[in-house]
Design a protein that fits this description.
Length: about 250
């Protein structure tokens, strides 16, 4: 029996070496049951102790995601070449973010529907339900440029804790958004950020679902680029899918 395990171990080792040979200019990554050859500048390994940029990993390193989630980064120049309308995001010191970072979850077809629903926590906040009834008062509604989406701002926050943050929906949310109605109604959570030296900027955390690949992707855009979120999401899916090692490339 020990000999059988030894042979199996050697076979796995040979297969791994073969895959790594096919990925000399990138990082070999096994993610959600598929093998990828990810450009070194676009791979971040997610582990239990934090995020490690692949640029600091050994050249021959193999990345294994034991969970169905992974972080990828795409150079902002590549994204803007494909979608020129996307606005740059700036850091606190005023420099331009060089990448767009995407947190990707691999999800099953059975799980897909729940990713279109609005978080019940967000619904409670916006509608002032329960503990939020005395906190989230007089919400202000305005429109998002280039869309018919709405921005719901906290009109009167008693403790001032969330001044400068707001939510974006396609239409005003209902209590049942978290269970059945209005799938995909929630668009983003946004906030203002900046400093005394550099101008104020709005950044929004949004998401995209690709049913064909089974990907749920979370990423950030400026609010004036938010209307492009589906284009950006589709672009990210296309990039990630292009890194998959096909059967013909493994042989």
């Amino acid at each position: 029996m020990r000999a059988v395990y030894l042979v199996l171990g050697l076979l796995i080792l040979l297969l791994t070496i073969n895959f790594l040979d096919k990925c000399e200019e990138g990082k070999f990554l096994r993610f959600a049951g598929k093998d990828y050859c990810v450009p070194r500048e676009s791979s971040i390994y997610m582990s239990g102790v934090g995020f490690f940029n692949a640029l600091f990993l050994p050249l021959s390193g193999q990345l294994d995601s034991d969970k169905n989630q992974e972080i990828f980064v795409v150079p902002i120049g590549n994204l803007k070449s494909a979608i020129p309308e996307v606005k740059d995001r700036t850091t606190k010191n005023g420099s331009i973010y060089p990448h767009i970072q995407a947190l990707v979850f691999a999800i099953s077809k059975q799980e897909l529907p729940k990713f279109y629903l609005t978080s019940t926590a967000i619904i409670d906040i916006v509608l002032g339900i329960g503990e939020w009834s005395e906190v989230f008062k007089d919400p202000k509604v305005s429109t998002i440029p280039f869309t018919d989406w709405i921005r719901i701002t906290q009109g009167s926050y008693l403790d001032g804790a969330s001044k400068g943050s707001w939510y974006v929906f396609k239409k005003y949310p209902e209590l049942t958004d978290g269970s059945s109605s209005n799938p995909g109604n929630f668009v983003a959570t946004c906030m203002s950020q900046g400093s005394k030296i550099y101008p104020l900027e709005t950044v929004c955390g949004t998401s995209y679902v690709d049913e064909e690949q089974g990907f749920y992707i979370k990423f950030r855009l400026t609010e004036d680029s938010l209307y492009l979120k589906d284009q950006v999401g589709a672009y990210l899916v296309k990039q990630i899918s292009s890194w998959e090692l096909k059967e013909s490339e493994k042989n």
